[in-house]
Design a protein that fits this description.
The protein is globular, with a radius of gyration of 36 Å. The N and C termini lie far apart (about 105 Å). It is about 75% helix and about 0% strand. The chain has a single domain, classed as Ferritin, core subunit, four-helix bundle (Ferritin). It is mainly α. About 30% of the residues are buried.
Length: about 210
């Protein structure tokens, strides 16, 4: 039987289209993620693990201590008392935070001791400045020690362990200042206070270290 020409033509065109489709390379997969995914990924904030974990650095600066080393006599006493008042005020603030967040009764006991003893010493030192030198705490001296404590004071105390971890270097700062007072102060009352601070806060550091073990 003879096949009409238009049928042959249709058949050949169909075959050609099929072959052409088989030879077309597959479309390459997109390698760039959708814009919305990229944007969301880049927008996610990075977690600062050092600020939230147990490896926090609570070290203080030493600009206040450096300034004290260059002073003697009255100038030293005014600067030392002014700095220690600010230093004690920071300790009282941290202890008050611990009183509201601590879960252990022994932590609350230690925090209350700080509030009681250092509030009393703040009043004593403020009175000495007024009585001996007719002055109030020196702002420049207090600004130095407050700058040294800025990073530490920027971290609110949220756990018992954090209170101890922050208070240990803070106490050490007071000890360092007080040891300098034993050498540079001319007032026996200041030296007596300095020795009292050294003795009390070394003992408290030992207690705090035992609490964190």
């Amino acid at each position: 039987m003879r096949i009409p020409n238009f049928v042959r033509l249709s058949f050949l065109l169909s075959v050609a289209a099929t072959v052409a489709g088989c030879n077309t390379p597959p479309q390459e997969a997109a390698t760039t993620p959708p814009a919305s995914t990229t944007t969301a990924t880049n927008a996610m904030p990075k977690m600062d693990h050092a600020a939230h974990g147990g490896n926090m650095d609570h070290a203080m600066g030493d600009s206040g201590l450096t300034a004290l080393r260059a002073k003697t006599g009255k100038d030293f006493d005014v600067a030392f008392l002014s700095q220690m008042i600010a230093h004690h005020q920071a300790a009282v603030e941290m202890a008050k935070q611990a009183l509201s967040t601590a879960t252990k009764p022994e932590t609350r006991t230690e925090a209350q001791k700080v509030v009681d003893s250092q509030s009393k010493e703040i009043a004593q030192m403020t009175g000495w400045l007024r009585t001996w030198y007719s002055t109030t705490p020196d702002k420049q001296s207090q600004d130095l020690v407050n700058a040294d404590m800025k990073d530490m004071m920027g971290m609110p105390i949220t756990t018992d362990a954090m209170f101890y971890e922050m208070m240990i270097p803070h106490h050490q700062g007071a000890i360092d200042m007080s040891e300098l007072a034993l050498k540079n102060s001319d007032r026996p009352e200041v030296k007596e206070l300095a020795q009292s601070i050294i003795t009390a806060q070394k003992a408290e550091i030992a207690t705090y270290q035992s609490m964190t073990q």
